Amino acid sequence: MAWRNIWRNKRRTLITAASILFAVLFASLMESLQKGGWNNMINNVVSFYMGYAQIHQKGYWEEQSIDKAFEWKPQLVKTIESPREVIRALPRLESFALAASDDLNSGALVVGIDPKLENEMTKLEDRLVEGTYLQEDEKAALIGAGVAERLKLNINDTLVLISQGYRGVNAADLFPVKGIVKFGSPELNKSIVYLPLKNAQNFYGAEGLITSISLQIEDKDRVEAATESLRSQLDTMAYEIMDWQQLMPDLLQAKALDSAGNYIVYFILYMIIGFGIFGTILMMTKEREYEFGVLTAIGMKRRSLMATIWIEVMLLGIVGAIAGVLASIPVVSYFKYNPIRFSGEYAGMLEKYGFEPIFPALFDVKIFVAQAIIVFVLTSLLGLYPWWKIRKLKPVEAMRS
Amino acid sequence: MIIQTKGITKIYNPNKIPVNALNGVDLQIEEGEFTAIVGPSGSGKTTLLNIIGGLDQATQGEVLIKGENISKMPDNQLIDFRKNNIGFVFQAYNLIPVLTAKENVGFVMLLQNRSKEERDQRVLELLQSVGLEDKVNKRPSELSGGQQQRVAVARALAPKPAFILADEPTANLDSVSTNNLLDIMARLNEEEKMTFIFSTHDQRVIDRARRVITLVDGKIASDQVKS
Ligand SMILES: Nc1ncnc2c1ncn2[C@@H]1O[C@H](COP(=O)(O)OP(=O)(O)O)[C@@H](O)[C@H]1O
Ligand SMILES: [Mg+2]
Question: Which residue in A233, A245, B127, B139 has the most C-beta neighbors within 10 A?
Answer without folding.
Answer: B127
